[in-house]
Amino acid sequence: MKSVRLDNVSKMFGTAKGVEHVAIDVKPGEFFTFLGPSGCGKTTTLRMIAGFYYPTKGKIFFDNRDVTTLQPNKRNIGMVFQNYALFPHMTVFENIAFGLEVRKLSKSVIKEKVERAQKLVHLDKYGNRKINELSGGQQQRVALARALVIEPDILLLDEPLSNLDAKLREETRLEIKRLQVELGVTTIYVTHDQTEAMTMSDRIMVMKEGVVQQIGSPQEIYNKPANHFVASFIGESNMLEGEVTEIRGTAVKVKVDSDLHVEGVLDTEADQPKLEVGKKVKLSIRPEAIFEGQGPNQLHGTIQLVEFTGVSINYLVKVGSSILKVMIINKGNQILKRGDSISLYVPEKGVYFINE
Amino acid sequence: MNTNQTASQQESRWSRLTQSKYFIYILISPLFLVLLAYVIYPFYQTFIQSVVGTEGAGIGNYKRFFSLESTANLEALWTSIYISVISVITCAIVGVTMAFLIERYEFPGRKILSILVLVPMALPPLVGVLSFTFLYGESGIIPRSLQALFNLESVPFSLKGITGVIVVHTFTMYTYFYLTASAAIKGLDPSLEEAATSLGSGRIRIWVKVILPMLTPAMVASSLLVFMIAMASYTAPLMFGVERTMTMQIYLSRTNGNLDMAATQSTILSIVSISFLIMMRWYQGRRNFQNQSKGISVHRTELRTPFMKYLSMFLSFIGVIILMLPILVLVLISFSVDGEWTIQIIPPAYTLDHYIALFTDERTWRPIWNSLQMSFVATIGNILFGVAAAYAMIRTRFKGKALLDILIMIPWALPGTVVAVNLIAAFSEPSVFSFNQVLIGTFWILPLAYFVRHLPLIFRSTSAALMQMDQSVEEAARSLGANWWYTFRRVVVPMAFSGILAGTLLAMVQGLGEFVASILIYSTSTMPLSVAIFQKMYAFQFGTACAYGVLQILLIIFVLFISQKLTNGKAGAVI
After folding, report:
1. ipTM of this predicted complex?
2. What stretches pass through the bilayer (chain B) (predicted)?
3. Which run of H or E residues covers position A17?
4. Which residues of chain A have pLDDT under 70?
């Protein structure tokens, strides 16, 4: 268990930008996730922590040790690759034993440790299997066992679930989280899947085009997105832009268009934009923050599209010239049809003002 | 404490060195050094000899080459090009037709034909030409039996001269077209044709607009390849007595002691070959049709009418006979008593003696043992160089990669005759690269020639294996604490093993059959197998010559079989 600190790390590929000014402090035992669309620099950052790339600028510390240019094999990390990178010419046992053999442990110790690791990932009977005789999920677990058996200071996971089918993905997600909690190893996880990030992480770093957008707990990221990108990348959101018409303490009134006025409350604890009457402002309203019926921020609109998912009824509602996504939890309510009119309201805390 | 400190200091200095971005150049410099010593330097020496010569420096030799007064050289250049162009055309016709028949139609005899179609690859160049002269030459079995059958005055036809060379080229080189064309046809997505049909195209339009354009890259690549190999061909002109080709002219100039001219001719032939190589690399770089759909199923048209069935059966039978005859005749003659076969259609007396002698008679065994030794030495060198070069090429980044690639491929493009002339020019005198020894006339010159000629084989097969291997596997080993060398030993080599072995076997077998360079540089104490075959042939000891040939063929078939297994049927990639 070690902490990981990235001190203003940047990486250039030739003249192309990789990542810029990443500064994070991962606490011992923390589950920390890099989240972002492909090409956002999350894997680059992970590979610098692993030692496969060296930063162009900045430094990397494990606890207080500067490892910026330390070779990957000297870092005592466990890494799980997107395609697992298992050794195809070795058996399951030999794959898991590889790291222990490198560490020159005795045969009996290796056997004991590998068997324990196999049990940990429920592959006790598979020691003699070749890698190509395993299913995707089993390969994934071998990769995990191989990374964990060396008792790494830091566990690095590079999109480990992206090659699994939906059902298996959920199962393995729980499995990884269980192992991480049980072993308490500092874990850095790379994904583009917001569900994975939200459900597993203690903290998330959202990245876009090599630049860090926001670092925070899943709740903070979801409820208090730092900007437009974060709000729309994590979960669904109605992004509106309007003009501030009135400020009373923390209460703010915004005119989106002539038919759509919204009133919200500034969050004094979060990083909020500076508002002035007459200035433009962006705000985000989550679909599930809009309710059917009468209440504050009363809206009236016509239904454009209806989707029934079982858990919820999703509507696209045209209000004035804007179109809002609305999600109503299915409690047996009557499902409206396209063209019906609907009355909606948004509680004031459902309106969140965002930067830029 | 103190020792600890210096140790850690040393380690940090070492790790600073290994992490420097210039460290890679220290690692690859031996590769460039080998290429400099045994490819560039000999080439340069030949060039120098051609311009400096015995009569003072100048381009006199080149003037003489292109002079219109004595046109022997120009004629040779013209004949070489002429033979090569015709060879490309005939090989293309035979190879592509075979590929289409076998890949697209289902008929009785298809299976056996699809295996035997690669038989010509199992014939070493010299042995192949040999069996053709036995079969179709002036006193060959086929012309003579036809003469006897129809009571003719003289033989109705026989292979000789340029026609002979072209027939042999067609037989031995159509496989290059066959392999690339059948791979391309296999890769043709049937849904493309279906799409064209659904859009209203007829068969002819589909051929012209869809199939042929998709095959063009494969055709161009094989044309360049066959042209290059035909230009380098030496054995066929030698056996059919066509003296006016470039390779023969080099050989003759050399045996006549006109070394400057030999050097000049070599240089000119090298330039032609290398420019073709560069054209090929350039073309390979820009061709590529990727199939979009996965899991292509080839559908073969079945021949339904009884007439077509019998016709196809008959034609496949003829095909099988033509393909098998060269080997069968070698086997037959290998049992014949030396000196008995004169005017009869087939040898009159048979014996097992030649095969027994191969392994019991010291003098008959000697050339086999020589070739085994020399080929082994050369192959060891090829493994070391090939694996290191492939790893550097695929896994590391450095400036000069394209140069390394071209330099490794050059020996493959150079005719064996030229390689020999270059080595003679470089190592008739002591040089740094031969550790101040004269190599000509020693044991070492032949392994060196084999090493140079087969330089690309292991390099290419290993590169192919490494390319298929995901780099993250190596990174996984590093992340588990293995250092570079441990990773290389435990992960890279085992995973690339099949590729390395396939190339190794091929290099070994090519070394055992090498004739073209050997004939120019062997010495009597180190006579290799193929030169022995050639000499037995001229001493009318046909039986022994063919027994040697059969042995070579068996070795080659064995190796092809193994490498086919190792590379999952992608042996074509190695060649």
Report:
1. 0.78
2. 22-44, 76-101, 113-137, 157-179, 210-234, 262-283, 310-333, 372-394, 406-427, 433-452, 491-509, 546-563
3. strand A16-26
4. 270, 356
